[in-house]
Amino acid sequence: MKDYTEGNDEMKTNRAKKMMLWFAIVSMGMSFAGFTSSYIVSRTRRDWLEDMALPEAFYVSLVVIVMSSLTIHFAKKMIQQENQKAGMGLLIGTFLLGVLFIWLQFRGFGEIINEMGINLTGPTSNAKGTFIYLIAVVHIAHVVAGLIALLTVIYNHYKQKYKKGKTLGIELAATFWHFVDILWIYLFLFFLFVR
Hints:
mainly alpha, elongated
């Protein structure tokens, strides 16, 4: 069994930061489990729309978020191999894909409102639509947090703070970004199949 008290102070700090991120990820995952559980329980309501389709923009956003997971994965690899230029290009690509994802989410909301006539609140709202809005907006907030982390990593990479063996920032940002991506895949499939 590995002794987690071994190593110098930097190694201990790095392990602690990684552990804190994993605690946060588990906590956020539990929040979304609560949202989706409430969604399931609410399906028994009389005003539940079983035939409500997901907007097309959500399908496109799924592809975009998967692409962003690939770009951050390869950005981390390039930075660890000290290929600075490729790493920076992939980081910026990931950031732009994240922004595109958020734009597609709001475009999806527009489709729900304009094409399906379902609003968040008021007489043209319903429980299913409100759940989709709420869960997607909370997920968008997590993507914004990921974008802020990416901006920090881009800045630090520009300042050449990442050297071989000293890439904790990009590792933490990539782990969080993958979590946000996997979370959207889960939510998308959940909305698609749990009607």
